[in-house]
Amino acid sequence: MHVAWLGKKSPFCGNVTYGLAITEALRQRGHGVSFFHFDTPAAQLRLGRMFRSNLQQEDTAPLSAGNRAEDDWDNEHGAPATTTVLADDSPEVALPYLLRSQMYTIPGPQAARDLRHALQRLQPDLVHASLTLSPLDFRLPEICRQLGLPLVATFHAPFNARLRSATATTMRQFYKLYAPALARYSSVVVFSELQAEELARLGVPRSRQAIIPNGIDSRLWCPGPGAMPTAFQGKRLFLYMGRLATEKNVEALLKAWRTVRPEDCMLVVVGDGPLRASLPLASDDGTIYWWGYEKRLEQRLNLLRNADVFILPSLVEGLSLALLEAMAVGAACVATDAGAHGEVLAGGAGIVLSTDNVAAQLRTVLPILRGATPWPTTSAPWSVCTVSTSRRRGPIPVRRRLLAGLLQSPEPSGSPVLVKMPICLRY
Q1: Res 83: pLDDT
Q2: Which of 69, 179, 248, 385 has its CB 3.0 to 4.6 Å from that of 202, i.e. a possible disulfide?
Q3: 424 and 349 in contact (C-beta within 8 Å)?
Q4: 235: which DSSP letter?
């Protein structure tokens, strides 16, 4: 099968990780993939058209296409070259944009036309849109209908069906905006029961929805040794990994941390974003360390393996890949029930907080985590906890050390065993 995949390659976000991982898995299974993404500023393309036009007027020989397909220029309309053939013979189509960020993209005026021409030329069997939150998302159903192509969407926009706040209200309005368009897609992939219920309430038929939670490669994200950075040695490591944005609610974590001031502990903040300048990421006692954005996968894995506790205080969420990765490597996880996190951590897989007054809840939880029984090194035996999400099957490795400390019970010894974590704290 040949799949035309519409996604993102930059700026880095969960959508980028998701798209690259799924398309690589499709290729490994023998499917063809053409990757469409916003990559070339529209102003640059306009200059390219002008340069091309001047060359043609002077009867100059055609530009050398290098590794670009020869028919990428549509002479009738003057469309810019957009398709690059990669080393593995997979076409990559760059669409023009005016503005793009981690959250949304404003396409260039010619983006829809370029997309249509590329689909006509490549003739895929299926179009899959990992929705990039752009106006082009609303035109895709009509484009694909005219070309006779089935259209599948992955809709992983964050939400919180319970919280009444400006952030949650904004996301609910966003869902209302997207629902009529999603109802015209052939199928829509969502990540949780709650999200499916919300979209069904807004008019997207349940028969067109497929609930497929986010996943990770457990061969990579697994317990194992990791070199502790020198600055963190001798400390109990608490880790946040994600964007520094309003919906992530990192300010609540920082506020609680400064109130509790846990001894012999270090809070490491990994990530960057629009709130970087306004967040108080420096501390007088040196217990808060801003790592910055980390693009190296092996370093992110190393940080998670060294983390004793992973904290995600979001107000709205989808299903965080960082949370799944932290669970898989064995860090004790604390997260709000935003998005699908409550479903993932249900049944004892972690500590679940309400999205209401997160800072106050963390002021209660942090001293408990700080005072837990001394935790073992990475060479200690691991236990396994099942995650009781309706769509998730199979065990996920989790360190028992956190909840053993909370219960004041001894650490398990011997070979790894399959256990059910005895408690799931909710506030």
Answers
A1: 61
A2: 179
A3: yes
A4: S
Q: How far is CA 25 from the centre of its chain?
A: 17
Give the CATH number for residue 86. Answer: 3.40.50
Q: What is the DSSP letter of 231?
A: G
For residue 413, what are the contacts with CB-CB under 8 A and spacing of at least 6?
381
Q: What are phi and psi of 79, to 5 degrees?
A: -70, 145
User: Is 239 in the same domain as 375?
Assistant: yes
Look up residue 257 and give its two tokens.
């941390």
Q: And the tokens for 141?
A: 């159903």
Domain extent for 113: 2-154
Provide the H-helix boundaries in 219-318: 250-260, 297-306
Neighbours of 48 (CB within 10 A): 17
Strands (E), 173-247: 187-190, 209-211, 236-241
The answer to the question of residue 162 being in a domain is no
In-domain check, residue 202: no
Same-domain status, 411 and 275: yes
Per-residue pLDDT, 215: 85
The string of pLDDT tens digits covering residues 174-229 is 899 999 999 999 999 998 888 899 899 999 999 999 999 888 888 999 999 888 88
β-bridge partners, 334: 311, 351
Give yes or no: residues 259 and 133 share one domain: no
Q: Do residues 148 and 234 share a domain?
A: no
Domain stops at, among 115, 137, 154: 154
Same domain membership, residue 280 and residue 410? yes
Q: Which residues of the chain have pLDDT under 50?
A: 45-56, 58-81, 87, 373-427
Q: Rounded to whole angstroms, how far apart are CA atoms 167 and 186?
A: 30
pLDDT digits (tens, 9 = 90+) for 41-74: 755 544 444 444 444 454 444 433 333 333 333 4
Residues 280, 132 share a domain:
no
Give the CA dihedral 65, 10, 320, 407, nearest 10 degrees.
120
Does the residue 395 lie in any domain?
yes
pTM of the entire structure?
0.71
Q: What is the pLDDT of residues 251-270, one digit of tens each?
A: 999 999 999 988 889 999 99
Structural domain total, the chain: 2
pLDDT the model gives residue 17? 80
Strand partners, 385: 396, 419
Is position 177 within any domain? no
